[in-house]
């Protein structure tokens, strides 16, 4: 093979190598939940139903995608709201500059801007305040749809129109 042919192949392949640090995964590649676990986070900090994600391994920029926004209400505890895109920067034991996740505190919705894993606890920060939770609370992914902004309207409609399903 001539030098010109090798050089041409290099020019064609090199942009693919350079841009491979910014990846969007689907199919048989790792899931967003597996990526979280690789950075020492429990899978339960994301709700069920993540449809895809994007990760730039060089900067740690991370985005997770849902079919739409959703709310989760933990009975007697807290309310979370997820937007259709959750963004931030991920590194070992740290998610920072987060956007797309809010928590209801009293009567106000506050953005969760940082999550730090500190041994067996997760520290959630809304900027001026933070709260610690044991990691055991996040071993399973929460199910969207128990809150106000459920995107699972089709399933709810099917259940309501099914004469064999009763609400009693």
Automatic annotation (TrEMBL):
Highest taxon above the source species: Eukaryota
Keyword ATP-binding: no
Record carries keyword Iron-sulfur: no
Signal sequence segment: 1-19
Transmembrane residue ranges: none
Alphabetized UniProt keyword annotations: Signal
Gene3D superfamilies in the record: At5g01610-like (2.30.240.10)
A Pfam family: DUF538
InterPro entries per record: At5g01610-like, DUF538
SUPFAM superfamilies: At5g01610-like
PANTHER family reported for this sequence: F22D16.19 PROTEIN, T31J12.3 PROTEIN-RELATED
Name of the protein described by the UniProt record: DUF538 domain-containing protein
Organism for this UniProt entry: Salix udensis
Source species taxonomy: Eukaryota, Viridiplantae, Streptophyta, Embryophyta, Tracheophyta
């Amino acid at each position: 093979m001539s030098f010109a042919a090798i050089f041409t192949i290099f020019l064609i392949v090199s942009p693919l190598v350079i841009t491979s640090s910014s990846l969007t995964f689907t199919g048989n590649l790792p899931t967003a939940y597996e990526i979280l676990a690789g950075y020492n986070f429990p899978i339960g900090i994301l709700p069920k139903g993540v449809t895809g994600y994007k990760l730039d391994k060089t900067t740690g920029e991370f985005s997770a995608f849902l079919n739409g926004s959703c709310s989760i209400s933990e009975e007697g505890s807290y309310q979370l709201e997820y937007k259709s895109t959750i963004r931030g920067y991920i590194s070992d034991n740290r998610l920072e500059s987060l956007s797309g996740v809010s928590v209801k505190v009293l009567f106000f919705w506050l953005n969760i801007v940082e999550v730090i894993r500190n041994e067996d606890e997760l520290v959630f920060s809304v900027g001026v305040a933070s709260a610690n939770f044991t990691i055991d609370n996040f071993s399973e992914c929460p199910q969207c749809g128990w809150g106000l902004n459920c995107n699972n309207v089709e399933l709810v409609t099917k259940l309501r129109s099914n004469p064999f399903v009763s609400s009693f």
